[in-house]
Amino acid sequence: MSSSVASPPQSGGRHQKKQNDKPASLWSDAWYDLRRKPAFVISAILIGVLLLMAIWPTLFSSVDPRACDLSVARQAPSAGHLFGRDNLGCDVYSRTIHAARNSIVIGVLTTVLVAVIGGLLGMVAAFYASMTDTVLSRLTEIFFAIPGILGALLIASTFRDQINSILLVIVSLTVLSWPMTFRIMRAAVITAKNQDFVVAARALGAGPSRLMFRHLLPNALAPVIVVSTINLGVFIAAEAALSFLGVGVQSPDISWGLMISDARDRFLDAPLPLIFPAVFLSITVLAFIMLGDAVRDALDPKLR
Amino acid sequence: MRVTKGAQIVAGAALLALAVAACGGGASTGSSGAGSGETPVRMEVGEPQHALVPGLTAESEGAEILAAIYDPLVNYNENKQADPNVAESVSTTDNKVWTIKLKQGYTWHDGTKLTAQDYVNAWNWVARKSSAADATGFMAKIDGYADLNPEGEGTMETVKEMKGLKVVDDTTFTVTLASPFSQFGLMLGYTAFYPMHPKSWEADGKLTAAAQEQPIGMGLFKLDKAYKKGTDQTIDLTVYDKFTGTKPKNWTKLQFKLYTSSETAYNDLQGEQLDIHDSIPATQLSSAKSALGERYHDDPDSAVGYIGVPLAYNKDYQNADVRKAISMAIDRKTISEVVFSGSRSPADDFISPVVDGYRQGACGEACTYNPTAAKELYTKAGGPAKIELGYNADGGHKEWIEATANNLRQNLGVEVEAKPFEKFASILESLQNKEYSGLFRMAWSYDYPSPENYLRPIFGKIAIANGSNYGGYDNPEFDKLVDQGDQAATADESVKFYQQADDVLLKDLPYIPVYFYRTNWGHSTKIKNVSLNLLKQVNWAAVEKA
Q: What processes in GO biological process is this protein linked to (chain B) (predicted)?
């Protein structure tokens, strides 16, 4: 870890990536480990495919997910419609593919927001300590006290008339999830800030923002990345849960949770429109959680 | 005036329609009412829109509950005619002055004798503008109603009693109408015409809290305790032992369970946690038929399902051609067959097939699925590029609304958003407060078996301020034809005028009729002899525990 310490004070190259010219850095070690892990490779491929699906759904299906024909509702799978038709006569395959975008967008944006908000506040709390830390830490405890999905349900159902449904899901999940990242970042920064290289940088006259972003952040980032990757899968599952309960993504937008919800009432008559999105949802969540596990093993060998 | 929540909503402003909003609340928290150890007969309802006051109730859920607490003046027989019930006779010679005589022996649940004055008091209160009663329109035909409802916002009445109501003696009173109305006798079975207990009012004429939460009725059941709206998940009742009519043979406890999801209620019915469910969701129909067997019922129903149009509040829809194009873009037949498993039939008139005056195919081209012509007409008429379609999420409507949204999206090339409201009551409130201005799901089931009930209560000018004319439709020609129907000398002539009024609606399409209902209901194995009357209320006295 100390390899990342000695940044020349005059360096203006903020974007310069240290791991590239320091072969023995944590990051390059991790990458070396990861490439050799089957779990990582499999989940990375799955995620790659899912991302492609989200970015370019028409690559997978040429059928319009909203071209529905009620007269052929609940039709069994056929050549043109691999997964059959749902209760409104829409193509299940095409809808499942197109739903990936909303689910992944919600997962990724929520993860980024949670990491940025929780991470920043956690670093500020740890760095300034005393009052700042006390106030912020108590605040996170308040949020911790709210049970996750119930709180999101409350937020989403209260504001659902005012905001776009996808945005609302992101906001409600973020509001309830940032404290976890906050705690992890805070703990990591507290550990890092008493180390010699930080003391040295301070003695050389580094200001708070330089200390935080140049010295503390790179050394506290690993655990946040690990938790974020795992959380990404969790957020996608949470989105599905909210949509299933009717407060998440709203029609005409498509999401896996919504598809499951729409199909459940006729599950006994027509199980496929429920099973396919459920399988996709499970695979996606599994892929992100596997990736998170692999990244944790690589970045934090102590936990192995 | 009854708007139906689930299977049927009918909104009527003044005459008698109950909205069928049926659908109920969440799982109930056990049957606190069964203190005596008797398991109550449990029935599914949705949360009533208002307090348990007859004049405030113009929707099916509240009406179902009130029908257990009160007993109507007349009952409807199989032929949709009124038979005297609490009334010994209802008579008239000129359709203008009606004499109502009460049977002896009826008492309120506190033992007080029921008198003609109790009817007069209740009806006067319903008619007063200051009461803001949803069912006020039912009183509009009585002479003197206009005096109690001065024009102008905020102007309150100075006269408190309608001059058309006269008490003759303890058990007789006369009703003089402002003009002859041949169907008046048919109206008297409706919720709004229930009497109210003499102690229902404060000195200043306002309703007491008790009258709203624990009304003293004169019907088969009395309330065990006050009903706190919004908190209580059940309404518990016990048979009133001094009730003079027929009582149930082998049980005394009745419980209404409030559900917000008809699916949940259906699961409870299958689990025998519920005994009667009168709005089995469309999605469960095919499985209900096999799961319930003989306990599953499919009755013709008076309700008509519409897409409502906020004519007066959204200028996007003011061109009649836009509405016609929307109507032509809806594939009624496929929706009835696929979404409702055949438990609905495509609507082709504003008047339901269950009453006289229905004409098959009256709607003609406008109700016939024709995507190409619809698109052309819509483009030409300049319809909006985005359509909102509101519905209550508690009544099993999502699927057909989504199917309709798909129809409109594909056939008209517009963006359509199906907007769920939490419950039937919230969509009604939102419409009444003019907060929502998109298209909305609506349905109407009659309050009395007359074609007039499908016209004025939903589309008459009188139903705009207090009533079920949620779209704000106002056409003097229509109002005039309905009036002429009311005053016609014979029933046949009345029907002719009503049909002409219906023609005006079919041309204007203030709402878009989509389907006619059937009532799909079922009961548990714990009870037998269950039947619904013409108002789709359970005939409690006949029900027996198995």
A: peptide transport
